[in-house]
TrEMBL record:
Domain of life from the UniProt record: Eukaryota
Stretches assigned to the Bifunctional inhibitor/plant lipid transfer protein/seed storage helical domain: 34-109
GO molecular function, one term: lipid binding
UniProt keyword list: Signal
Originating organism: Ceratopteris richardii (Triangle waterfern)
Signal sequence interval, chain numbering: 1-31
Any one Gene Ontology BP term: lipid transport
UniProt protein name: Bifunctional inhibitor/plant lipid transfer protein/seed storage helical domain-containing protein
Length: 122
């Protein structure tokens, strides 16, 4: 039960960080998107913090592939996703190697780096 409570706390913290950070950009739409991104990637937090690799058919990977499909729609969407992920990572400090592996493990095309310039995404 203690692990479950901690997981819910981390999920809530992730959503708060993403929503607050995107509000600094001045866009309510971005805030909603960052909140949705945080909520959808919550199942991945265990892996991103050093836990076991998620299965391809897990909720984590399903969310990663869904985010990947969204990223393919436009440059603005890719840039927003990039900023949201970087903002969350700055606070939550996930394992860099896990972040780098997540897209490949889940079969996603887009690879977001935590140190890339989001404005330079094509």
């Amino acid at each position: 039960m203690e692990g479950y409570g901690r997981g819910r706390f981390v999920t809530a913290a992730l959503m708060l960080v993403l929503m607050t950070t995107s509000l600094w950009t001045g866009s309510v739409v971005d805030a909603q998107n960052c909140g949705n991104i945080g909520a959808s990637l919550a199942p991945c937090l265990g892996f991103l913090n050093g836990g076991p690799q998620p299965a391809y058919n897990s909720g984590c990977c399903s969310s990663v592939r869904s985010l990947d499909r969204s990223a393919q729609t436009s440059r603005a969407v890719r840039q927003n996703i990039c900023r949201c992920l970087q903002s969350a990572a700055a606070i939550l400090k996930p394992s860099p190697s896990a972040v780098n592996k997540l897209a490949a493990v889940c079969g996603a095309r887009n690879r977001f780096s935590l140190n890339q310039n989001c404005n330079s995404l094509p």
